[in-house]
Design goal:
- The structure is a single chain.
- This protein is of the alpha/beta class.
- The protein folds into four domains: 3-130, NusA, N-terminal domain (N Utilization Substance Protein A, Chain:P, domain 4, 2-Layer Sandwich); 133-197, Nucleic acid-binding proteins (OB fold (Dihydrolipoamide Acetyltransferase, E2P), Beta Barrel); 201-275, K homology (KH) domain (GMP Synthetase, Chain A, domain 3, 2-Layer Sandwich); 278-403, GMP Synthetase, Chain A, domain 3.
- The chain contains 14 helices and 15 strands.
- The strands form four sheets. Strands 5-6-7-9-8 form a five-stranded mixed beta barrel. Strands 1, 2, 3 and 4 form a four-stranded mixed beta sheet that branches. A three-stranded mixed beta sheet has the order 10-11-12, with helices on both faces.
- β5 and β6 (150-153) form a beta hairpin.
- α2 crosses α4 (102-131), α5 (201-211) packs across α8 and α9 runs antiparallel to α11.
- The protein is elongated and about 110 Å long.
- The N and C termini lie far apart (81 Å).
- Mean pLDDT is 82; it is low at 364-403.
Length: 403
């Protein structure tokens, strides 16, 4: 053994980030295996590596007992005290048994074992690094694809992006740079396996944290997210700072912040609404951009009946019921949307003055078509009035009217 080994261990520690003690333990374990295999020895042995002196020695270890049953593993008290009088029953006696040609044989046999231990140590470091990054966003490069999965390089590891976690409107090509959300990290026989997503609501949350300083520093809080990846999403935001507009902070000047996030998600529209602990206000906000005339709440059933102007019924429902469905997911309340005409015929609108005082909905300022800086978040096509209306239970998969 020479100083070359010490230099090699130091280089591995610097390049791979693996502690030299870990490598020394791996080498000692490999040499013990090599000794037993090549010299047909079954006794308990220990290998001592002295990196400073560049020496390697093998010691047999025997237990001190009164009656010897196996001479390879045990030694009598009398024989032990001949070596050193201080030995007592239960002690361990070590004796050097280093073979003359052990260096050559050990080098050949230990190479594969040491390599395996180094690889395992590297995998352990990678696992520890990425397990701490679960539920976080990372940059990756598309490396390859198969029939179902996309493989994204994250630097030290290759992550799997399953087809179910891909945005269906996106196309990927090798060397494309994308942001992904780490959903799970597993330890496998082949090393750590990282699973990522482009459809998880957590990706939208992290993108807003990166883009909006007020969210990153905690001034504005994201309360809930409802997302249909690649098409449209809604998020609710809240702040206790009266001087900060939570919605305006997320939208940015001329919609720059939300536009940047939309571009990262392949044009996905993002509605930003203000959260409220009052379900009347929250549900009305969540159905934006439609105007809401009234919201009636059933606390026991955790459901709401929403009245909208006749000409905005289809806008409130959205294409294939998307706007109402996302609003229900965002608020956690069932939403039954009725037109003003149907509500009057059923006698649920207008309500008595006492009821209206108990539940009042503030109408949005200005016309709903005037979206201003919210254009990207609230863009929609002109709707046509719906002559016949139906009730929509948004937690059930029911057919809704097309625009």
């Amino acid at each position: 053994m020479s100083s070359d080994l010490l230099e090699a261990l130091t280089a591995l520690e610097q390049q791979k980030g693996i502690s030299r003690d870990v490598l020394v333990d791996a080498i000692e374990a490999a040499l013990v295996t090599a000794y037993k295999r090549n010299f047909n020895q079954a006794q308990n042995v220990r290998v001592d590596l002295n990196l400073d002196k560049g020496t390697m020695k093998v010691y047999s270890r025997k237990d001190v007992v009164e009656d010897v049953e196996d001479e390879r593993l045990q030694i009598s008290l009398e024989d032990a005290q001949v070596i050193n009088p201080v030995y007592e029953i239960g002690d361990i006696v070590e004796e050097e048994v280093t073979p003359r040609d052990f260096g050559r044989i050990a080098a050949q046999t230990a190479k594969q074992v040491v390599t395996q231990r180094v690889r395992e140590a590297e995998r352990g470091l990678i696992y520890e690094e990425y397990i701490d990054r679960e539920e976080d966003i990372v940059n990756g490069i598309v490396e390859r694809m198969d029939a179902k999965n996309l493989f994204v390089g994250l630097g030290k590891v290759e992550a799997v992006l399953p087809s179910s976690e891909q945005i269906q409107t996106e196309t990927y090509a090798p060397h494309d740079r994308i942001k992904v959300y780490i959903t799970k990290v597993e330890r496998t026989a082949r090393g750590p396996q990282v699973f990522v997503s482009r459809t998880h609501p957590g990706l939208l949350r992290r993108l807003f944290e990166l883009e909006v300083p007020e969210i990153y520093d905690g001034t504005v809080e994201i309360k809930s997210i409802a997302r249909e990846a690649g098409d449209r999403s809604k998020i609710s935001v809240y702040t206790t700072n009266e001087e900060v507009d939570p919605v305006g902070s997320c939208v940015g000047t001329r919609g720059a912040r939300v536009q940047s996030i939309s571009n990262e998600l392949n044009g996905e529209k993002v509605d930003i609404v203000e959260w409220s602990e009052d379900p009347v206000v929250f549900v009305a906000n969540a159905l934006s951009p439609s105007k809401v005339l009234d919201v009636q709440v059933d606390e026991e059933e955790r459901s709401t009946t929403v009245v909208v102007p006749d000409y905005q019924l289809s806008l409130a429902i959205g294409k294939r019921g998307q706007n109402a469905r996302l609003a229900a997911k965002l608020t956690g309340w069932k939403i039954d949307i009725k037109s003003e005409t149907d509500a009057r015929e059923l006698g649920v609108y207008p309500r008595t003055e006492e009821e209206l005082n108990a539940y009042s909905v503030e109408e949005p300022d200005g016309d709903t078509e005037d979206t201003g800086d919210y254009l990207e978040a609230y863009e929609y096509e002109e709707e046509t009035p719906v002559e016949e209306t139906e009730d929509y239970d948004l937690y059930a998969d029911v057919d809704t009217k097309e625009d």
